[in-house]
Design a protein that fits this description.
Elements lengths: L3 H8 L3 H10 L6 E2 L5 E2 L2 H15 L4 H13 L4 H50 L1
Antiparallel strand pairs: 1-2
Helix pairs in contact: 4-5
């Protein structure tokens, strides 16, 4: 079991954000000690990391919350969760293709400027 501070260090999320994610349903409620302090299991941390993966991958918060709600309902919702993940996979694939096109253009422009700069240096060296 880990404290909220340890989970904060491990995930890179602030303590405030961890509490907020629990409050809005992005993560399932965690166990609390008698004094009210949260204690996190390794499974809780894995869920937080999965939520972060989805969030950083651009999944809308509403979809993440829906996924977590379905997860809490048990194995009968596996097909629905799979559909959410497949839909998001398609979005991420599309974004990656677009980013690949942008990266190709940027690299072309870099090559253009490198060649231009090389030509200027050669021209300057022949003029002197």
């Amino acid at each position: 079991m880990m404290s909220i501070g340890q989970v904060s260090e491990q995930t890179g999320l602030s303590i405030h954000t961890l509490r907020y994610y629990e409050q809005i349903g992005l993560v399932t409620p965690v166990t609390r000690r008698e004094n009210g302090h949260r204690t996190y299991s390794q499974e809780d941390v894995e869920q937080i990391n999965f939520v972060l993966c989805l969030k950083k991958g651009g999944m809308p918060i509403t979809d993440i919350k829906r996924y977590i709600e379905l997860m809490q309902q048990g194995d009968d919702t596996v097909a629905d969760r799979l559909n959410i993940l497949r839909a998001h996979e398609a979005v991420v694939e599309q974004q990656m293709q677009e980013l690949g096109k942008h990266l190709s253009f940027i690299r072309w422009k870099i090559d253009y400027y490198c060649e231009y700069h090389r030509n200027q240096l050669e021209q300057a060296s022949t003029e002197t």
